[in-house]
Design brief:
mainly alpha; two-stranded antiparallel ribbon; 7 helices; 52% helix; Arc Repressor Mutant, subunit A
Length: 141
């Protein structure tokens, strides 16, 4: 039997897309220009242009970035760096963070309402989400 701590330890809280997005937004905030092209960000972020463009488009769709088309176009922050959190990036690129879904074989667990472990993990999840929401792009500058 594999201990529960092994599953928790092996889990990734934030994927590489969130890491790349955070790097790109920090670069944009530091550059202090009206728009930044994907080509300008590519080297700083260290990821292929098509992959970075996909990430930035998702952030645009989530309202974190503005897209500027045409000559001199690119992306711009839609909000001030102090108003963009890691939680925003996680939600836009990964969806909601859930440490425990309580789902077994696509059915809700029969102990869902009384499971003590679920309630303990839910409390951890609440604190974790509060910490992630507390980290802003400005904090990362």
């Amino acid at each position: 039997m594999i201990p529960i701590w092994y599953h928790i330890n092996a889990m990734k809280l934030m994927n590489r897309n969130v890491d790349y997005a955070a790097r790109a937004l920090v670069f944009m905030a530091q550059a202090n220009k009206p728009t930044i092209s994907v080509a300008q960000m590519q080297e700083e972020v260290g990821v292929a242009r098509p992959f970075l463009r996909k990430i930035l488009q998702k952030l645009h769709k989530a309202g974190i970035l503005q897209a500027v088309k045409g000559k001199g176009g690119g992306f711009a922050l839609a909000r001030n760096p102090e108003n963009i959190t890691l939680g925003d990036l996680v939600k836009a690129l990964q969806g909601q963070i859930k440490l425990n879904d309580c789902v077994l074989r696509n059915k809700l667990c029969q102990n869902h309402g009384t499971c003590k472990m679920r309630h303990k993990i839910a409390a951890i999840e609440t604190r974790l989400l509060a910490e992630i929401e507390g980290i802003t792009i400005k904090d990362l500058l």
